[in-house]
Every structure is written in C-alpha cells, then in structure tokens.
Here is the input.
Amino acid sequence: MNRAEHIAALRAASGTLAGGDRLLLAEWSDAAWNKLLDRTQSRPFRTSEVVIQRGALDRALNFVVGGTLEVGVTQVDGVSVAPLAKITAGSVVGEQSFFDGQPRSTNVYAITDGELLRLEYDEFVRFSEEEVALARDLLFALARVLSSRLRNTTFRVRR
Here is the structure.
C-alpha cells in the first residue's frame, strides 16, 4: 500500500461511529495524517503469522491499515488458543504496552495477509513535542479504543 491508501484506510474506518475499536479521527486532514504516518514504519504480515508475541518487550503502537488480526490467549495446556477479538483496518494493536511500557499481554495472530504501520514510542514522543494538538487527538482516540475494549471484556466476563 502507498501513503494515500494508508490514509484512506484509516480515514474510512474513522468515519464508522459504530466501531468502538476505531480511532475516530475523521476530522484529521491528509496533512495531519501525514505528520503522524511520517513517523511510522510499514510492517507487512502474512496469514498465520504471530504479529505480537505475549511477553515480548516492545512498546510500539501498531496501526492496522490492511488485513485482519485475532487477539488470543494461550490456555493452561499451552496449546489451545482462546480468541478474544478480531482487529481490522482502522484500529490499533499494542496500545497497552505503548502506554504502560510493560511486556505484551497477549498474542496477536494474522488471520489474513495485511499491513501494520508501527509507531515506536520514541517517535511518538517527538511527534507529541512537535504536534501537541494532534498528539492530544491521538491519545483521546486511543483512550476510546481502550475504553471500548475494557467495556467489551467486562461484558464478556459478566456473562
């Protein structure tokens, strides 16, 4: 994918108000997206690949611009996997470790081929120093994603 396609994927998903997993940054211009995406690295992934490994020390935030991922936890037997969520273009993965600096809490598997845009924590710090308002918008969008995921988990636990 090229930059215009990356922005289109993120913008299209941002306009979907029903998707709690979406970043919801529809008001951002192409220039705003470019300022953020200039700080990212493309990371293609293939079906069945482990995109994020539980326990890994990695603080990058990953924007999903193509493909489908599944978040899952390995059960006590070490073999079976319980799926927790499907993540598609317009969302993010790795947000917990991005915020708290702790090891990755779960595995993320590729269900289809796709692409991530990785934002290293140090690059976010530089971005936030240069683009205060955009960084604020991004942080609130990430907080909405975290809140939605927490509510969904709470709902699933209550059942």
